């Protein structure tokens, strides 16, 4: 059963790592899947493709600049036995030589997908070392997101980021206040960088109507409507600390 989109692989991979105790989020700093485990010092990254190809391999090598725990994940299509990108023993040996992990997801018509690990990462044995700065940025972006609102493997879609979340919270505060100062927006939204977000106006959501006074633009109003469900999840998560909506 061949998948149509890479995003179809994300859910079974997410569930697999969650069962192992990882907190999982997608599309974090361009990584398809990122997992963090309380008992591990390094984040885990999984790059997803429908089939094994050179682009996936190069992505995996690039991700080793963030962590040694890098997996490549592809569909295991039972109808394509013998295809060059289904020669699992050869592909496993290649990944092992490069310090990458390799996973497959097999889909069935009448039962749940099956996730299999063909080899685990050993990135540091290859001589490549992760950049502390890149790792730190990845972890910070991961933790600043309140939930997992993207789908790993997405292309051509607006990605939910920690910055977008903060901007949406500020926009909601401006909408509620009608015409509001950055200081008030900071108080009502709980976003310390509210003033910078309003002044830089990256998404075009805010309009300065007087000194120290802003209103929401039509684009900002539309964004709040588009992300209404996500904002409700944020409110519930903040009202019940420790519970994360995904």
From TrEMBL:
Protein known as: Restriction endonuclease
InterPro entries: DUF2161 (IPR018679)
Superkingdom in the source lineage: Bacteria
Organism of origin: Paenibacillus physcomitrellae
């Amino acid at each position: 059963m061949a998948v149509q989109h890479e995003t179809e692989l994300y859910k079974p991979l997410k569930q697999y790592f969650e069962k192992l105790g990882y907190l999982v989020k997608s599309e974090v700093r361009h990584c398809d899947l990122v997992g963090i485990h309380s008992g591990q010092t390094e984040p885990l990254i999984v790059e997803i493709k429908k089939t094994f190809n050179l682009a996936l391999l190069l992505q995996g090598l690039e991700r080793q600049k963030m962590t040694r725990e890098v997996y490549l994940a592809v569909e295991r299509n039972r109808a394509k036995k013998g295809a060059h990108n289904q020669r699992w023993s050869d592909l496993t040996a290649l990944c092992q030589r490069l310090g990458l992990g390799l996973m497959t997801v097999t889909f069935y018509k009448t039962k749940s997908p099956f996730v299999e690990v063909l080899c685990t990462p050993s990135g540091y044995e290859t001589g490549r070392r992760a950049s502390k700065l890149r790792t730190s940025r990845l972890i910070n972006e991961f933790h600043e997101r309140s939930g997992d609102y993207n789908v790993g493997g997405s292309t051509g879609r607006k990605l939910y980021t920690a910055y977008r979340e903060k901007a949406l919270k500020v926009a909601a505060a401006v909408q509620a206040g009608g015409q509001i100062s950055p200081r008030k927006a900071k108080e009502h939204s709980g976003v310390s960088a509210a003033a910078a977000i309003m002044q830089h106006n990256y998404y075009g959501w805010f309009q300065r109507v007087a000194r120290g006074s802003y209103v929401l633009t039509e684009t900002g109003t539309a964004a709040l409507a588009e992300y209404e469900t996500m904002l409700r999840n944020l409110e519930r998560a903040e009202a019940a600390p420790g519970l994360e909506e995904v």
